[in-house]
Amino acid sequence: MEFEVQPTETPVEAQARAEVLAAPAFGRVFTDHMVSARWTREQGWHDARLVPYAPLQVDPASVVLHYGQEVFEGLKAYRQPDGGVAMFRPDRNARRLNLSCRRLALPELPEEDFVAACELLVRTDAAWVPDGEGASLYLRPFMFADEVGLGVRPSESARFLVIASPAGNYFSGPLRPVSLWLSQEYARAAPGGTGAAKTGGNYAASLVAQQEAIENGCDQVVFLDAVERRWVEELGGMNLFLVLDDGTLVTPSLTGSILEGITRDSVITLARELGHAVEERKVDVDEWRKGATDGRVVEVFACGTAAVITPVGALRWPGGEAVAGDGQPGPVTTRLRNALLDLQYGRSADTHGWVRRVL
Ligand SMILES: *Cc1c(COP(=O)(O)O)cnc(C)c1O
């Protein structure tokens, strides 16, 4: 894919940009540019451009607005110690986008085009990459069906875009454990459904459960499997790990209804290198509840690109609560979080080939 570059004539002024970068809120302000490409059944991918960030013109009868045929990705660009910029494992996002596309009957995008689109945007808007601990430029590649018509069938045309937003820490303030609400009524994903695809519909379906979590004084919701309501799956947008008293890490296996997090995969690799056994298997919610009480489960953490590794404090359900360890960020959680951040911010050697320098 060749990108035609059309830079903005009215970039945000340096002073205004500096103010945003000093205290970025998640996903509120976007950089000067975006990447855009079009697909039609007849022409394939074409019309690839870097253009000024601007609203889109979308026909009211576009398929995505009615039937939700859409997928997205999330990755970050990090300021490096020498002032350069690097992305973390963008090839994995490229691969996952295509997995999602296959499930949502959207066209696949060549992996090298996905990475090139992200790189072009980061390079062009490199002045928007914040420095400072925990800060980064969050990239949001996404694809949606834009054929006009209300007939229910896969769209014959689609658009792919990448936008970017400077980000601070996902959960504001100093690192503190999040509390989780165990949803009784709602499921995020079911066997045969779209749980393994990164698609907006999964998020739409999680919102009332998330609302319920907030009403019950919790930060996030944790979903159980849809069939037995017994096996721990994940949060609305993060994967979960338990740390056992012998140092073993346990995370729910990828059953088809869980999103395969790239952070999850990185944590598994790093934990094994640090000498931990890692088990990917079914996790009974009672293993968590009982284990938190009897001392078998000593730490719990959630992980994902946006929030990196976030310690979990209390797990709550109607009439009950379980807290692993002392409810504070535990040593294993903290060590893994630092190991991951050190790689992303270029403070430790990239022995896995995960870091892709852009500048
Ligand atoms: C994106 C996402 C994750 C985390 O994936 P990362 O690649 O680690 O950012 C976990 N669960 C869901 C449902 C997601 O959409």
Gyration radius over CA: 21 Å
Low-confidence stretches: none
The topology string of helices and strands comes to EHEEHEEEHHEEEHEEEEHEHEEEHE
If classified by CATH, what would the architecture of the largest domain be? 2-Layer Sandwich
pLDDT averaged over residues: 96
Assign the CATH topology of the largest domain.
D-amino Acid Aminotransferase, Chain A, domain 1
Distinct ligand kinds: pyridoxal-5'-phosphate
Give the fraction of residues assigned to helices: 25-40%
Number of helical stretches of at least 4 residues: 8
Which CATH top level class of the largest domain fits?
A: Alpha Beta
Shape label: globular
Model description:
It is a single chain. The protein has 359 residues and is an alpha+beta fold. It has two domains: 4-167, Aminotransferase class 4, branched-chain amino acid transferase, N-terminal domain (D-amino Acid Aminotransferase, Chain A, domain 1, 2-Layer Sandwich), CATH 3.30.470; 178-339, D-amino Acid Aminotransferase, Chain A, domain 2. The chain is 26% helix and 29% strand. It contains eight helices and 18 strands. Strands 1, 2, 3, 4, 5, 6, 7, 8 and 18 form a nine-stranded mixed beta sheet that branches. Strands 9, 10, 11, 12, 13, 14, 15, 16 and 17 form a nine-stranded mixed beta sheet that branches. The longest helix has 16 residues, at 200-215.
Quick rundown:
This protein has 359 residues and is an alpha+beta fold.
Features:
single chain; 359 residues; D-amino Acid Aminotransferase, Chain A, domain 1; D-amino Acid Aminotransferase, Chain A, domain 2; 2 domains; nine-stranded mixed beta sheet; binds pyridoxal-5'-phosphate
